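Hi all, a correction to my earlier message: I attached the wrong file for LPXTG cell wall anchor domain-containing protein. Here's the right sequence:
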Amino acid sequence: MSVSRRARAVRILGVVSASAALALGTAGNALACNINEFSAEAKCDGDKGVITVTDVDPAGIKAKVTVYLQNNGADAQKIGEQEVKGSREGTTITFAEDWKPNAEYRIHVKAAPYVDEDIKPNLVTPATACKKEEEPPASTPPATPTPSTPSASPSKPAEETDTPAPTPSESESTTPAGNAPGPAGDSNLAETGADSNTGIIAGIAAALVVVGGGAVFFGMRRRGANSEG
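and the right structure:
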């Protein structure tokens, strides 16, 4: 075989080997860990929330998964960090995180030298919490108190009344001196309207009676003497 043919054959063999190596390298990278083989989900475990990350890397390369709670586009809290070894069927790891509705989490995956990036887009939790808030019981309006009617106080007996008996006024209890009753005689004179001349008149009347009686007596006596003569 001539030199030219031998050189040509070597050149062709080198190109084929390089192509094969490139193909194998590409295939190896395709079979190696890839960020697209990771997925995250916010779920409920009873009344508690959890975050799960699933790795479907068929090569089974170990990867470190870290979960961060976001606040206004920045890491607010590191929730946890775990290692996962993927499989064709998928390997799932769980982070116990009682998440709030509409919360945002950043999930970072590192599997050197293949992956060192976040799962895109960030995980946003559902709008409904795992534990339903108990509705407060319907408040019933308080019953309007019925105004109580004051009971009539028992009337006190007449002798127990607090009002003192009226005392006679001075004008009623004390008879004025000018109106004091006088002796009985004066009272009779006041009633008959007689004055001090009544005694004189009575004496004259008595005298007249005596004189009349004497005249009658002497007249009868004279009549008797005349009848006898």
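Sorry for the mix-up. The CA atoms of residues 67 and 107 lie 5 Å apart.
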